[in-house]
Amino acid sequence: METLNGDQSAQAMVWKFISGFADSFVVRCAVELRLADIIHSHGRPISLSDLSSFLTLPSVDLDRLYRIMRYLVQMDLFTKETLDGEERYGLSPAAKYLVTGWDKSIVPALLFITDKDMMAPHYYIKESLRLGEPTAFERALGKSIWEYMGEHPEKNKLFNSAMACDSRLLNSALVSECPDVFAGIGSLIDVGGGTGTAARAISQAFPEIKCTVFDLPHVIADSPDYPEVTRVQGDMFKSIPSADAILLKGILHDWDDEESLTILKKCKEAVPRGGKVIIVDIVLDTEPDRPQTHLKQCMDLDMLMNTGGKERTEAEWKKLIYDAGFKGYEIKHISAIQSVIEAYPN
Length: 346
Hints:
The chain is of the alpha/beta class. It has helices at about 5-20, 20-30, 35-40, 50-55, 60-75, 105-115, 115-120, 135-140, 145-150, 155-175, 180, 195-205, 215-220, 255-270, 295-305, 315-325; strands spanning about 45, 80-85, 85-90, 185-190, 210-215, 230-235, 245-250, 275-280, 285, 310-315, 330-335, 340-345. Strands 6-5-4-7-8-12-11 form a 7-stranded mixed β-sheet, with helices on both faces. A 3-stranded antiparallel β-sheet has the order 1-3-2. Helix 9 packs across helix 10 (about 155-175) and helix 10 (about 155-175) packs parallel to helix 12. The protein starts with 5 loop residues before the first helix and ends with a strand.
């Protein structure tokens, strides 16, 4: 077996980083071709020629398709085996997340993240490091991500689908692992709740809670009209409706400390005595070898480029919460990458 010396191994590692972008776009190609859907619907491993017959392309170069499939097999997303003397392709356990039409599909997130406009900020990371400089997103697209989504309905729909995708994956852990967090709550406002996926899941799991989604007008206009959820338009920087609990799921990481303080103070004003603010966000690990540390830091990079926000360590969360006038907090780690932080105003 060929082995690499130290210098070759180091170079190979750098080359892996250099070409790593290709993985994202090959997976996007697989989604656009609906490869996982086709194999899943077929119900068993499929030959290359049969696979090509299901593609919507008018004609398919089998050699090129074979090379794409070879790459996807090398990525451990698809499998290859020989049956009856013919090579056939199946789905690895990871590929099920590329199948559309079920709650845990991450296809909407993939399509949003690899969208041409959403990739553009990566070219401006260096410029965004200068003091007083706007975010990489603003440099690339000329306005903040929130302004951009408000002016581009098709991108906003893609964004909301990606956020709903992430929300569905998180909601299962949130409602199944945190019943004590929602105990005794009569009303809940999901601030920045988007399409209402989280509020609906909470309402269905805890029907005694009256759930309301509170978000910007263009977001509410694009959200489904779920019977379990009330929808209210507004601006969280101005005022927030009163409720026993305020939910901030994936919100504060979008903003810097000053803006996050403003949001938390508005939440504190909206919560009556005995109420609380439920923050669902990443708590960064301080030890680099912990599970999910790399993914959490990737999310922090995403905030750096696109929103000007940040992921926070527990020490940073503590400072933010107390600076906003809260009297205490508790952190509950769940099976998702995010954690649940209960902040108590009094």
